[in-house]
Design goal:
With 382 residues, this protein is an alpha/beta fold. The protein is built from 14 helices and 17 strands.
Length: 382
Amino acid sequence: MSGVPDKSCQELHRFQINSKQGDYNMTREHTKTVKIGNRLIGGGNPVLIQSMCNTKTEDVKATVAQILRLEQAGCEIIRVAVPTMEAAAALKEIKEQIHIPLVADIHFDYRLAVAAIENGADKIRINPGNIGSRERIKAVVDKAAERGIPIRVGVNSGSLEKEILAKYGGVTAEGLVESALDKVAVIEDLGYRNLVISIKSSDVMMCVKAHELIAQKTDYPLHVGITEAGTLTSGNIKSSVGLGIILYQGIGDTIRVSLTGDPVEEVKSAKLILKTLGLRTGGIEVVSCPTCGRTRIDLISLANQVETMAAEFDELNIKLAVMGCVVNGPGEAREADLGIAGGVGEGLLIRKGEIIRKVPENELLNALRAELCALAGRNVNE
């Protein structure tokens, strides 16, 4: 896994938030510490990256395969849908084959939550509003308490109660916060406080405001994300803006970038957001030029392949430049530890601004991998 900032670095992310109660410090260090499997969140622990499988949980082989790919990409907590008893039963076998905490996503049927916990879920996500009666919620809480696992109380803008909508005249940040805290109170009344809260909206600025408000009212860890953000392009933009503002204020303990597509892309985006904000260090930073009329190499495809390959080398803390031409490439790559610059059917391999050698275009990626392996002390065939 890539490195994380120490306490002194986290102090840089302490900010003054103005509220009706007055000015006060907002920082991740003020949230409660919660254990999820073998990981800790809250209390100043690193912001962890979460994703969700889009496989059928009942299909153990496909689900495990996807989780292992997500682990390799840097996912630190994984959530799976549990819509059936078969899916709940599959959790036991899935958990035996993966290495990160497993979260069960439950809606409507409290019995699925109980079964998920019995089959080894490290955390469950529920919306108490659609679970049903207090007795049913209590059955879930009692089972979670028995196993000592946290409950994530989740509220989305699309699931607000009619009373909340009427009170606030529609979906609002204030309504999201009130709904979430009402549901937290139900579980607290049952004597359980091993909780994580998530409040999500597809409206970016509403989501930001909701997190600012709820962070003033509770010290439970917050899982943050922009729900239903969209496809790779729109989803990344919305998530980067929303999560960037939220995290920059010291709010948020786990994150998910919700994208319509391969969940591996969610993890890659989340890592980059955290690195950009200085909340995650280590790994390879890839910089690439936007291409121009001088480009004589398939730079777009090459840059994407380089970025994918670079994700495999979390132990390296270097900058890698991918440049489109030999005119400015060496100069632009001077500040990078390693780089490549395209030519006509070939490219230059560059180290610390110095040209190492020319390489045919079809061998450029492998040559770069060999350099990275050498830096990482790996065998090139690994």
